[in-house]
Amino acid sequence: MLSMKIIFAVILFVGSSLFVSAQVAIGEKAPEFSLRNAKDKLVSLSSFRGKVVLIDFWASWCGPCRAANPSVGKLYNKYKAKGFEVLGVSIDSKKAAWLKAIKQDQILYSQVNDPKGWYSPVAEKYGVNQIPTSFLLDKAGKIIAIDLAGPALESKMNELLKN
User: Fold this and answer.
1) How many angstroms separate the CA atoms of 83 and 99, rounded?
2) Cβ-count burial 27-57 (b if 16+ within 10 Å, e if not)
3) Which residue from 163, 152, 127 is spatially nearest to 30, judged by alpha carbons?
4) Rounded-to-integer distance, Cα 160 and Cα 154, Å
5) pLDDT confidence of residue 36
6) Whole-prediction pTM value?
7) Segment 45-58 mean pLDDT
């Protein structure tokens, strides 16, 4: 009986280890996805290829996300002419709340929404288990940083987009 408990524990441990290793990591190509924007148009991550992209997972009900939106917007405005894009991925299950937050926060960069909320296949694919979470991609679509913010993100942007 004890050996069955040990076997079950080992299977559980190995299974959970496989799940953790399935999450994206720095150096990997960012998984492709397509979601709808505010005008119900399908937007694909691959449409941003050739640009440095910040994928920003957030939601209207997330206080830290909303507090970060102005600084992400400033960064976008500063570097967009040099080939920088932000793709906000909202996990709001209520479209009206998402659209209201975009308007209130004066977000001008690209936004898409997965109305499945925490059950978002895209968030799951990226291993997002808290928000805000962000992924910085190089021009080839490779993940070069995760959750970089503030001066560290600004420094990385200067490095990537120097002309």
Assistant:
1) 26
2) eeebeebebeebeeeebebeebeebbbbbbb
3) 127
4) 10
5) 98
6) 0.85
7) 97
Q: What is the pLDDT of residues 6-38, one digit of tens each?
A: 444 444 444 433 344 357 999 999 999 999 999
Angstrom distance (rounded) from CA 91 to CA 76: 21
Whether 67 contacts 33, CB under 8 Å: no
pLDDT tens for each residue of 73-130: 999 999 999 999 999 999 999 999 999 999 999 999 999 999 999 999 999 999 999 9
DSSP the chain: -HHHHHHHHHHHHHHHHHHHHTS--TTSBPPP-EEE-TTS-EEEGGGGTTSEEEEEEE-TT-HHHHHHHHHHHHHHHHHGGGTEEEEEEE--S-HHHHHHHHHHTT--SEEEE-TTGGG-HHHHHHT--SSSEEEEE-TTSBEEEES--HHHHHHHHHHHT--
